């Protein structure tokens, strides 16, 4: 324990000496004195005179040369006495210099600087004169093993401290390097909006290599890293290599150095994207040339089958397209969906690349797996200059894809008039239908492209050419409410009453969707207001079903038959009652609708209103003379139907209007019997 205490004192003193050596002279006031305090009273006086605080202690002992006594306040309570024949000894509360004293450790006594703080009682190692003489005798007889052991321990401790300080310094240096590299790499990563973060995936050397790519030319530093064992083919979790990064940022010399050090020129990421793909995407011509010079596979496709040529065509890099073609890129190599580079260039509207591909024998009529040709693609995206280029290079103007859709269909669908005119000028078949029978005119009418419709009509389009469901262009225009197209078609001889395969007329369809202005146009052009479909449903029926009050009034004003029934005997009033459109019921009644007109099963409008629980409609019918006791062919009265469905409010309304509670069905059941039975069932369930 004593040895451990001594070791602590030694280490602390070393720190003290280290601090003193940092400055010239002392860091605190030091004074010479003729004598040290010889009693506790003198000690306290000296301490007060020096203003020693609670954290420091008054001290008095010989200087290093033992030529004089010095006194001072110092924050450390532990001091070391230099080796000298004379040393400090404490006896009877006094400091005295004694001869024959070897180097000893002592602890200073912290005095009380204030009456409320008495001096602390600490263990003091006392060397009396007797002890000193005893030590001298022992030294003469045998070696001082304690001193030897202590010295060895000191040496070991000092060595350990030195090693720890060295390791700490190295770690600090490495940490600073990592922080510096990390900042550089973060700058690289900020630019990489498409890449995957690799900070957690790669080592310090490789991160550093990536960070060097941020700088324009730093091949020396990169070479050092490569020489120190950096993995030139290291990839992140997405499989993106350092080579990919260099290609993306256009670092020519960096790329050259990586290739010279064995980087795999065709190393692909997990999506199958090669460095050449990346360089083609970002438009770095010199990088592409360097990769090709290093035997990059010009036709290596990614997992979707996209080649570098596809990529260059997509992003519109003409010079790179030429480079690839000069290095035997397959101009007709398609990816998995059958899309060729020419398709891609046509889609993105790169005229010069289209011309370049055609000059290098691209197949102008090569279709994808759905049968879509480059001409279809150009028509779809509205690139009229490319359409002209393709037509000039013998593109088949009537080549249809698998659904039978021609380029003219496509152009008409999107309303690209200039392309439509180009196609027509190049002998496109204006009446060529798809597999569903739809003509180009049909598509233009469906989408309301009036100018396109006019172009087609001017070039001989059949205005009444129907598809396989017998849907005419006029029908399509009415369905979607394109009034301008409707008028244009009717002005060009469209049959206003041409029905579809189920007998639904354009007027009927316009009524369904509430196209008031379209209905008005049709009626003004002699549309048959009472033309029914194959089930006998008239335009008025349809309008009553969907609740379009204004169109009901328009039809009635144009002599629609208010009591015209369908094939099951259902009148427009029945339909309005079924759906609870009270305002339409009132309109029909105001226009002489028969309130008691029954269908083929004898069901009256009042039956229907009771069946569907429309209380306000029931009241309206009763107020307009509906027969409250009119039964259907099975003898069921409106009251019976209301009781059957337990519509209490309607039952009461019917009773208030004279409904016969004992009126029986053909089975002999009356509303009263039925109501009693229901009441009994509820009563039985409650017990």
SS-derived structural category: mainly alpha
Strand numbers in spatial order across the main sheet: 1-3-2
Average predicted confidence as pLDDT: 80
Q: Helix segment count?
A: 33
What percent of residues adopt helix (DSSP H or I)?
Answer: 40-55%
Low-confidence segments, given as residue ranges, are 7-24, 76-142, 174-216, 682-687
Shape annotation: flat
Keywords: ANK repeat, Membrane, Repeat, Signal, Transmembrane, Transmembrane helix
Organism: Crassostrea virginica
Pfam family, one: Ank_5
ANK repeats: 238-270, 271-303, 304-336, 337-369, 370-402, 403-435, 436-468, 469-501, 502-534, 535-567, 568-600, 601-633, 634-666
Key attributes of the depicted protein:
687 residues; Serine Threonine Protein Phosphatase 5, Tetratricopeptide repeat; disordered C terminus
Describe the secondary-structure layout:
Blueprint: H1 2-21, E1 30-33, H2 40-49, E2 57-62, E3 69-74, E4 78-80, E5 87-91, E6 94-98, E7 105-107, H3 129-141, H4 145-191, H5 204-212, H6 219-227, H7 242-249, H8 252-260, H9 275-282, H10 285-293, H11 308-315, H12 318-326, H13 341-348, H14 351-359, H15 374-380, H16 384-392, H17 407-414, H18 417-425, H19 440-446, H20 450-458, H21 473-479, H22 483-491, H23 506-512, H24 516-524, H25 539-546, H26 549-557, H27 572-579, H28 582-590, H29 605-611, H30 615-623, H31 638-644, H32 648-656, H33 671-685
Antiparallel strand pairs: 1-3, 2-3, 4-7, 5-6
Helix pairs in contact: 4-5, 5-6, 7-8, 7-9, 9-10, 9-11, 10-12, 11-12, 11-13, 13-14, 13-15, 15-16, 15-17, 16-18, 17-18, 17-19, 19-20, 19-21, 21-22, 21-23, 23-24, 23-25, 25-26, 25-27, 27-28, 27-29, 29-30, 29-31, 31-32, 31-33
């Amino acid at each position: 324990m004593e040895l451990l205490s001594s070791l602590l004192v030694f280490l602390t003193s070393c720190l003290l000496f280290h601090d003193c050596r940092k400055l010239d002279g002392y860091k605190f006031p030091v004074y010479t004195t003729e004598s040290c305090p010889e009693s506790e009273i003198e000690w306290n006086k000296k301490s007060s005179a020096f203003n020693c605080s609670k954290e420091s202690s008054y001290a008095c002992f010989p200087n290093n040369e033992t030529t004089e006594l010095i006194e001072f306040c110092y924050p450390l309570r532990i001091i070391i006495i230099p080796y000298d024949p004379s040393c400090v000894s404490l006896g009877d509360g006094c400091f005295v210099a004694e001869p024959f004293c070897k180097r000893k450790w002592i602890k200073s006594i912290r005095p009380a600087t204030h009456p409320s703080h008495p001096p602390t009682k600490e263990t003091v190692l006392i060397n009396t004169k007797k002890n000193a003489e005893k030590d001298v005798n022992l030294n003469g007889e045998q070696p001082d093993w304690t001193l030897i052991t202590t010295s060895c321990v000191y040496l070991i401790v000092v060595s350990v401290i030195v090693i720890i300080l060295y390791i700490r310094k190295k770690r600090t240096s490495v940490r600073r390097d990592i922080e510096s590299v990390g900042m550089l790499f973060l700058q690289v990563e900020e630019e990489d909006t498409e890449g995957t973060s690799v900070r957690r995936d790669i080592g310090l050397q490789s991160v550093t290599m990536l960070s060097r790519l941020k700088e324009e030319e730093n091949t020396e530093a990169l070479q050092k890293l490569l020489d120190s064992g950096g993995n030139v083919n290291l990839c992140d979790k997405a499989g993106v290599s350092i080579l990919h990064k260099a290609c993306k940022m256009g670092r020519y010399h960096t790329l050259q150095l990586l290739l010279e050090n064995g980087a795999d020129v065709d190393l692909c990421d997990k999506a199958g994207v090669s460095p050449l793909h990346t360089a083609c995407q970002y438009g770095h011509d010199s990088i592409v040339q360097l990769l090709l010079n290093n035997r990059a596979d010009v036709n290596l496709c990614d997992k979707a089958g996209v080649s570098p040529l596809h990529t260059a065509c997509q992003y519109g890099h003409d010079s790179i397209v030429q480079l690839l073609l000069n290095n035997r890129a397959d101009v007709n190599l398609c990816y998995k969906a059958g899309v060729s580079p020419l398709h891609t260039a046509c889609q993105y509207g790169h005229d010069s690349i289209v011309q370049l591909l055609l000059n290098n024998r691209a197949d102008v009529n090569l279709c994808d797996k759905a049968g879509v040709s480059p001409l279809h693609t150009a028509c779809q995206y509205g690139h009229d200059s490319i359409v002209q280029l393709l037509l000039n290079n013998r593109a088949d103007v009537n080549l249809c894809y698998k659904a039978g859709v021609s380029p003219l269909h496509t152009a008409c669908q999107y309303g690209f008039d200039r392309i439509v005119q180009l196609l027509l000028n190049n002998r496109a078949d204006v009446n060529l239908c798809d597999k569903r029978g739809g003509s180009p005119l049909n598509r233009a009418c469906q989408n309301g492209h009036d100018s396109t419709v006019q172009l087609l009509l001017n070039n001989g389009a059949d205005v009444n050419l129907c598809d396989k469901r017998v849907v005419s262009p006029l029908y399509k225009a009415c369905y979607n409410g394109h009034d301008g197209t409707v008028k244009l078609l009717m002005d060009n001889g469209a049959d206003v009453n041409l029905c579809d395969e189920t007998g639904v007329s354009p007027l009927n369809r316009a009524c369904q969707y509430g196209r008031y202005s379209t209905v008005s146009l049709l009626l003004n052009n002699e549309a048959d207001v009472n033309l029914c479909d194959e089930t006998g449903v008239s335009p008025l029926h349809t309008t009553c079903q969907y609740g379009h009050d204004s169109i009901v009034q328009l039809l009635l004003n144009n002599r629609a038959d208010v009591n015209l029934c369908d094939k099951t005997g259902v009148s427009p009033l029945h339909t309005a009652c079924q759906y609870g459109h009270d305002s339409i019921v009132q309109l029909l009644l105001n226009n002489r609708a028969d309130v008691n007109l029954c269908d083929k099963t004898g069901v009256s409008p009042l039956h229907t209103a009771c069946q569907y629980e429309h209380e306000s409609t029931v009241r309206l019918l009763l107020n307009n003379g509906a027969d409250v006791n009119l039964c259907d062919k099975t003898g069921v009265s409106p009251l019976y139907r209301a009781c059957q469905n337990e519509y209490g409010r309607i039952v009461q309304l019917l009773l208030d209007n004279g409904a016969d509670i004992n009126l029986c069905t053909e089975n002999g059941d009356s509303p009263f019997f039925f109501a009693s039975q229901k009441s009994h069932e509820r009563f039985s369930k409650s017990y």
